[in-house]
Design goal:
Number of strands: 0
Largest sheet: none
CATH class of the largest domain: Mainly Alpha
Number of domains: 2
EC number: 2.5.1.141
CATH topology of the largest domain: Tetracycline Repressor, domain 2
Subcellular location: Cell membrane
InterPro entries: Protohaem_IX_farnesylTrfase (IPR006369), UbiA_prenyltransferase (IPR000537), UbiA_prenylTrfase_CS (IPR030470), UbiA_sf (IPR044878)
Order of helices and strands: HHHHHHHHHHHHHHH
Distance between the termini: 57 Å
CATH architecture of the largest domain: Orthogonal Bundle
Number of helices: 15
CATH superfamily of the largest domain: UbiA prenyltransferase
Bound molecules: protoporphyrin IX containing FE, farnesyl diphosphate
Strand content: under 5%
Structural class: mainly alpha
Family: Belongs to the UbiA prenyltransferase family. Protoheme IX farnesyltransferase subfamily.
Radius of gyration: 20 Å
Helix content: over 70%
Keywords: Cell membrane, Heme biosynthesis, Membrane, Transferase, Transmembrane, Transmembrane helix
Length: about 300
């Protein structure tokens, strides 16, 4: 048995020993899920850029990304607080700062509150109200609706909760235009459709963890074979949804070629996962999903700006 699987405990979070903010900064940083937030911000940036034929005004770009990033980080910290009991029972998460008592629940709450207030005020003052309210709604969607309720209630948790994580392209768009546009909703739809294969691939690999913590994720409630079928079906759906920006004229040939290549690889992994998996296929599929979304949004950017530069 791996060391990590022996060490974790189901005890409630212990009280933190007093250590200074400076020594602890890395625990606070970890609670913000920085790599997830960076990818969310990339999708928000693309939403901003595609919202205008020219360049995004610097003030909207900087305040918009900072505000969205701060509110997403606040949501991630709340997730660490609400989930600390579940996290303490899973090998992947038992070492998190709140579980280990490196950061106490009141400290984490204050940190999250400060991030949320600063983020909201930035959006309200330097961007616009619609972006501030939609970003706040995404925070509530993830930290309250998904984490507190759906995650514990239904295997469709990540499908419904995925809407909060899919929102940033729309938030970026409204930051620049102040309006909700169908093209922005299409980008949201792409991330929304991407989320199930992204997460269920990981959940297949971690099925025992979720079963032990009694979290009703799809592989726990409906089995691994059914989850693999769902990953494949959502990946096929994602391939179709990714064609829409080209078909409605939101994106051009560079995007069509780039997204088709990325989707072909995703489809390959999803088929392999269903019909010819080995021990590493689920995790490889999960890791690829992150590369897929990141490169897909970079391709959208290139596709948008290349005609402008040429
Ligand atoms: C409800 C929706 C989602 C669920 C349930 C979910 C779940 C997860 C989980 C459990 C991990 C593993 C974290 C770890 O290894 O500790 C992960 C990693 C990751 N997710 Fe998601 N995810 C969702 C949506 C998103 C979205 C919308 C994005 C970005 C647009 C995203 C980007 C990432 C990235 C970049 C990682 C790797 C993090 C790292 O290596 O530290 N996820 N996700
Ligand atoms: C304001 C705004 C844009 C909010 C979006 C918030 C956000 C950070 C979304 C990402 C979704 C995510 C990482 C879910 C995993 O939670 P989990 O609890 O299932 O995973 P875990 O077990 O790793 O904590």
């Amino acid at each position: 048995m791996a060391k990590s699987e022996v060490l974790h405990t189901s005890k409630p979070a212990p009280v933190a020993t007093h250590t200074g903010w400076r020594q602890n900064w890395r625990y606070y940083y970890e609670m913000t899920k920085p790599r997830v937030v960076m990818l969310l911000l990339l999708t928000a940036l693309v939403g901003m850029c595609l919202a205008t034929p020219g360049w995004v005004p610097a003030s909207k770009l900087i305040a918009g990304l900072l505000g969205i990033g701060l509110l997403a980080s606040a949501a991630a910290v709340l997730n660490h607080i609400v989930d600390h009991k579940i996290d303490s029972q899973m090998a992947r998460t038992f070492n998190r700062p709140v579980v280990k008592g490196k950061v106490t629940i009141p400290q984490a709450l204050v940190f999250s509150f400060v991030l949320a207030v600063v983020g909201y005020v930035m959006l309200e003052v330097w961007v616009n109200r619609i972006t501030a309210l939609l970003t706040l709604a995404s925070l509530v969607g993830y930290a309250v609706v998904y984490t507190m309720f759906l995650k514990r209630a239904t295997p469709q948790n990540i499908v419904i909760g995925g809407l909060a994580g899919a929102a940033p392209p729309l938030l970026g768009w409204t930051a620049v235009t102040g309006e909700i546009h169908a093209h922005a909703l299409l980008l949201v739809l792409i991330v929304f459709t991407w989320t199930p294969p992204h997460f269920w691939a990981l959940a297949i690999h971690r099925e025992k963890d979720y079963a032990k913590a009694k979290v009703p994720m799809l592989p726990v409630t409906h089995g691994i074979a059914f989850t693999k079928t769902c990953v494949l079906l959502y990946t096929i759906l994602l391939c179709l949804v990714c064609l829409l920006p080209y078909l409605i004229g939101e994106a051009q040939l560079i995007y069509l070629i780039g997204s088709s290549l990325l989707n072909a690889v995703f489809l390959y992994y999803a088929i392999k996962l269903k019909y010819a998996a080995n021990d590493t296929t689920a995790m490889t599929t999960f890791k690829y999903s992150i590369v897929h979304l990141m490169v897909l949004f970079v391709v959208l950017l290139v596709d948008h700006y290349v005609p402008l530069v040429l």
